[in-house]
Amino acid sequence: METLQLFDSLTEQPDPERSNSLERWPILRNLSRNEFVHDKTFKEFQYYYCEEHPDILVAHKFENVGFGEMVVIRTCWSSDPSIAMQYGGNLHRGAWVGDRLDIVPEVEFVAANKEGKWKDASGEMLAELLAVWESEYAE
């Protein structure tokens, strides 16, 4: 239950008014779908997940995951579902296949999102990444 509460609190949209370093955190944007993943949310979740589970292999492997793995998971496409992994999801049918992506500083993202047209996909991405890592590195 604590992990779920932590997950929910970390996937809230960041408040730019309280942040004093908007340049620090990069944002992965899907320009085709107006979705974004906030690096700060992801890094905070990684930190707390690894702190909660210091003795399990999943936490050790998960602490090095970043935007690269996110992009791969969301942009893989194959007609063959065999992926040589334990994960049982549709990893071969990436939700972002063919979409335009970029990474921008938080300050640029905040300026472009004044109308609030972007959907925060950080929680969804975290859940998917964690499911893949837990299935692959379960002890």
Descriptive notes:
This protein is of the alpha+beta class and 139 residues long. The protein has helices at 2-10, 39-52, 57-62, 67-75, 106-112, 122-137, and strands at residues 26-30, 35-38, 101-105, 119-120. The protein has a four-stranded mixed β-sheet. Helix 1 packs antiparallel against helix 2.
What is the radius of gyration computed over CA atoms, rounded to a whole number of angstroms?
Answer: 16 Å
Annotation field: number of helices: 6
Tell me the distance between the termini: 21 Å
Strand order of the largest sheet: 3-1-2-4
**Biggest sheet overview:** 4 strands, mixed
In percent terms, what proportion of residues is strand?
5-15%
Gross geometry: flat
Report the strand count.
4
Low-confidence stretches: 5-19
Q: What's the rounded overall pLDDT mean?
A: 75
- Domain module count: 1
Element pattern in H and E: HEEHHHEHEH
* Helicity range: 40-55%
**Which class of secondary structure composition applies to the elements?**
alpha+beta
Any chance you could write out the topology, listing elements then pairs?
Elements (H helix, E strand, L loop, with lengths): L1 H9 L15 E5 L4 E4 H14 L4 H6 L4 H9 L25 E5 H7 L6 E2 L1 H16 L2
Parallel strand pairs: 2-4
Antiparallel strand pairs: 1-2, 1-3
Summarize the structure.
With 139 residues, the chain is of the alpha+beta class. The chain has helices at residues 2-10, 39-52, 57-62, 67-75, 106-112, 122-137, and strands at 26-30, 35-38, 101-105, 119-120.
